[in-house]
Design goal:
The structure is a homodimer.
Chain A: E1 14-27, E2 30-34, E3 36-37, E4 45-46, E5 49-51, H1 60-72, E6 78-85, E7 102-109, H2 116-120, E8 122-124, H3 142-153, H4 159-167, H5 176-185, H6 190-194, H7 214-228, E9 243-244, H8 245-256, H9 262-272, E10 275-282, E11 290-295, H10 299-302
Parallel strand pairs in A: 1-7
Antiparallel strand pairs in A: 1-2, 1-5, 2-8, 3-4, 6-7, 9-11, 10-11
Helix pairs in contact in A: 3-4, 5-7
The structure holds a DNA duplex (27 and 27 nucleotides).
DNA sequence: TCAAAAGTGTTATCCTTACACCCATGT
DNA sequence: ACATGGGTGTAAGGATAACACTTTTGA
């Protein structure tokens, strides 16, 4: 604690900086992630990513918006920085061309039309995280996962508690990253043995793998989004201008990965003043027509933490 | 939404990457931030910062730990990445030598001995954020701040709501960054006119300024720490191995910047099983001796979100 | 004996959760 | 007429917030 007064003013070393985006949309009840089919790495899915060009872009976020608009043609509404990944493991497979590239991960929210979905490269995020969908109750795939995790947990103390906490009924839906990292440690996802960190375990790899550490970035995005729903009105970035309360609920459920009690959800939405009726009705519901609502942008200025504390 | 399948594989452009740390400790009732006296910029306080050297450090965090240990001699316990700042504004004053340096900000928690505090460069964080200390009720400095903010708010619609929401009695203590940024927008902090973004407003600058955007990083660190207290047992990184419940409360209050109801705090601590009695008593309390407690590390494995939801 | 801080008991209120039924429409 | 989803009322339980008083020690 003696020389704390000295600032290192040595010249910084150049590093290659990439920007990677987890662009999320919801279509009906399907949570979607925009993928770019990678040309290398055996066609594994990748998140769209591009370089940060400090000469043309004033800030990181401006750089991101620029090339996502260029690649997807759709402007992103909500954009939020997630995390900066500087792990050497990222490039274990990449031929060591750039063993130290640093990548800044972003979460972006957008809307997608019914038909543009597949054409644009959107895929259900549960293809990559099948264990995260508890909307129909405990996902069946856990019957395949838990025995393998239990076997791994038996080999060291403390592991069993982590498994129970992250994958049990009482799990916290926001801890998607920790769940993925646990599966990585346990050698059950392809990335783990591809990076050469952990030996391949017997049995199939869990979920579709992604390029580099993109699945980790997606896990981070999912967790952050699930957490953010509760205290910021971000769901509305995923909704069309007017929507029914059931559509809103389906969207929240798609993101949160679990069912929500209908009445309580409605009371919550009403009590928060997040929406107001447009006066119109939706008739294509299959049953009684539903009242249409729109987001009240004003709440953001009124309440300290407007969100849907489901 | 048409060409989303193409991954940009163009070579990344080199960028200078720095690591900046907000190293926090609490001494008694004083929340502290470790500063490095900057040699340039008229002796303004700076956060310790250093370059990321990709050749010697495997990850960003390892790089950070290495040079903080080197500079301060004290190993950091808890370390968490905050945000990556790539704003050109950072260097408006720096002579345009490196107009596009990117800096990764970190929050670190450490313990400080009674006497090492000043010698090591620790300063009360309220020197930089005097409006954040509501422990004795509404801070007096608001009498000087609010009229100036109100004047600024009168010039455009919507501003008054933001001011009320961020600086009123019902404010959210976690939104330190937004408060700082509002003062920046309003031209009331030195950084605002130093960066040339906003004209200097009449009246003194609020709080002590810091080098570059270090005060913004500190604001981010304070907000993140205040939020984290509530769902992770991070306070204990600031406590000695054994402590009284009152000392724990003082520490939480120092970080949160507000008073806590004694009985409710104690019940909360008990109900969460975060601590256990050591069996010893502290006699230097000035009154009745207090029971000493220690942190129960086991809770982390037991409960989904262990923290002090004050 | 008294100042100073430790430590406890109780109540009112709000929020969360759960449950079950009726309503309006398109087919 | 009936299937389908829209829409509501109410009650129990737990968490939170507010209150004031007793206890134990060092000086």
């Amino acid at each position: 604690m003696s020389k704390a007064r000295k600032t290192v003013a040595a010249p910084l070393l150049p590093v290659e900086l990439g920007l990677t985006a987890a662009i999320v949309a919801v279509n009906g009840a399907r949570p979607l992630i925009l993928t770019a089919r990678a040309e290398s790495e055996e066609g594994r899915a990748a998140l769209p990513s591009g370089p940060f060009d400090p000469l043309t872009h004033r800030t990181l976020e401006i750089g991101l918006r620029a090339w996502v608009a260029e690649q997807t043609g759709a402007p992103m509404g909500y954009v939020e920085q997630l995390y900066t990944f500087g792990d050497r493991g990222r490039h274990a497979q990449a031929g060591d061309v750039a063993p130290h590239a640093v990548s800044v991960g972003y979460l972006a929210l957008t809307r997608v039309s019914q038909r543009a979905e597949a054409a644009a490269g959107f895929r259900d995020w549960h293809e990559f995280f099948p264990w995260e969908d508890w909307r129909e109750g405990r996902p069946a795939i856990l019957d395949a996962i838990l025995p393998r995790l239990d076997a791994w947990a038996d080999a060291a103390p403390g592991r069993a508690e982590r498994v129970g906490l992250l994958f049990g009924e009482r799990r916290d839906e926001e801890r998607t990253l920790e769940r993925y990292e646990l599966l990585y440690e346990a050698g059950l996802v392809e990335e783990a043995w591809r990076d050469g960190r952990v030996d391949k375990k017997p049995g199939p790899a869990l979920g579709a793998a992604m390029r580099l550490d993109h699945r980790r970035i997606l896990a981070t995005a999912m967790g952050r989004l699930r957490a953010k729903l509760k205290y910021r009105p971000v769901v509305f970035e995923l909704m069309p201008p007017s929507f029914t309360l059931t559509a809103l609920q389906r969207t929240v459920e798609a993101v949160a990965g679990r069912q929500i009690h209908k009445q309580n959800f409605r009371r919550l939405v009403e009590s928060t003043d997040l929406v107001e009726p447009t006066g119109d009705l939706a008739h294509q519901t299959g049953g009684r027509p539903a009242a249409l609502y729109r987001f009240r942008r004003a709440v953001v200025a009124e309440r300290p933490a407007p969100g849907l504390r489901v």
